[in-house]
Design a protein that fits this description.
40% of the residues lie in helices and 13% in strands. It is an alpha/beta fold and 385 residues long. Helix 4 packs parallel to helix 10 and helix 11 packs parallel to helix 13.
Length: 385
């Protein structure tokens, strides 16, 4: 007999589509968020050197202290978060490792967790795994899919324990404004609510406003777990390395739990993350420039197709066009598009019930592939209006 928690944790709808097209060379894949860049050379060199230098044994459960010291410098430089590398930082097996560990140390059965919908599929799954109660908060197209403090406050009950934030958001590309983020922080402090800030797309923003991170705001450090993944920022999806920061109480609990799950993330990935954090950042700047051009290209292309409506995303590398004009459930439309055009997309309901009427397309692919995918969609979609 399998544990009941396995029944409550749903499989990823994204992976269902992705697995369906694996090995097919005729497919224009715009499903999974994998940057088409290679990991920068100085990061790969650091990993190779780490192997040669014997960094191949167990480390502290939170990671090498020198790695944590480098990550503390990155947090101060990029995110205005001051963290003690000894007690307030933990290296994890990717952002996913940090997310699930944070949920498990913070939630008791029956605790309510407010989370964005449409949102990253694993946010819902982690709440269920920790036996919490998911409370979706709708991200609205007319607000650019940005969360508001008013919406957060409307969902709070005596059972509310935590809020999950993801800005820029996957799948919508929505960004929470600085004004709203400050007000959300005030709501959390007033109601004694914890926050998990999934900052996976921290560097990929197209809005003019200076980035602000909730873990850096007054009164929020002790109630926030801020998670910064290297997967997207440095094209390191396969390396499985991230850093989480918060109060010593929260990070201490996560470190204790991590000991019993993976012990610590791979030593070689830790040394690679160290090099990424303190090494040259021009690789990130170049990726952002490329993604901005691709965002503009795919936004213009999709909006030129009859029946498709898209606001330019404020961040990340996804678009979330409104396709409700076609009058077809998003799940069915995805499969029709795949069959008729060989363009693979993801249905909006893969990201929650409020994703109905939308599709997600990842533009972390070459300009040529984006243009060909747009051409195929333009040749098919107007026919089914």
């Amino acid at each position: 007999m399998l544990a009941e928690r396995n029944v409550d944790v749903p499989p990823s709808e994204i992976r269902k589509i992705f697995n369906k097209i694996i090995g097919r060379t005729d497919i224009f894949d715009m499903t999974v968020g994998i940057p088409d860049f290679d990991t920068p050379q100085h990061i790969k060199d650091a990993a190779k050197q780490a192997i040669d230098d014997g960094y191949t044994k167990y480390t502290h459960n939170a990671g090498y202290i020198e790695t944590r010291e480098a990550l503390a410098k990155k947090l101060k430089r990029d995110n205005n978060i001051k963290a003690d590398p000894e007690t307030e930082l933990i290296c994890t097996a990717g952002g996913m490792g940090a997310l699930v560990t944070a949920h498990l140390v913070l939630l008791n059965p029956g605790d309510e967790v407010i989370y964005p919908d449409p949102g990253f599929v694993s946010h819902f799954a982690h709440i269920k795994l920790a036996e919490g109660i998911p409370v979706p908060i709708q991200l609205k197209k007319e607000l650019g899919f940005g969360l508001t403090a008013e919406d957060v406050a409307s969902k709070i009950t005596p059972k509310t324990k935590m809020l999950v934030l993801n800005s820029p958001n996957n799948p919508t590309g929505g960004v929470i404004s600085n004004k709203e983020l400050k007000q959300i922080a005030e709501v959390c402090i007033e109601n004694d609510i914890y926050v998990i800030a999934d900052e996976a797309y921290e560097q990929f923003r197209y809005v003019e406003e200076e980035p602000l991170f909730i873990g850096s705001l007054p009164g929020m450090k002790e109630r926030t777990v801020s998670i910064f993944s290297f997967s997207k920022t440095y094209a390191m999806t396969g390396w499985r390395i991230a850093v989480a920061t918060g109060s010593s109480k929260l990070i201490g609990a996560m470190t204790k739990l991590q000991e019993h799950i993976i012990a610590m993330p791979t030593t070689i990935a830790q040394k690679a993350a160290e090099a990424a954090a303190i090494g040259p950042q021009d690789c990130v700047v170049d990726m952002l420039k490329t993604f901005r051009k691709r965002r503009d290209l795919i936004t213009r292309g999709l909006n030129s197709i009859d029946g498709v409506d898209l606001q330019p995303p404020g961040g990340a590398f996804y678009v979330f066009p409104d396709v409700s004009a076609f009058g077809i459930k998003s799940y069915d439309l995805v499969h029709q598009i795949l069959k008729e055009t060989s363009v693979a997309t993801i249905h909006g309901t893969a990201f929650g019930k409020f994703g109905e009427g939308f599709l997600r397309l990842c533009y972390a692919v070459s300009t040529e592939r984006i243009e060909e995918a747009l051409s195929r969609l333009d040749s098919y979609l107007p026919k089914i209006l």
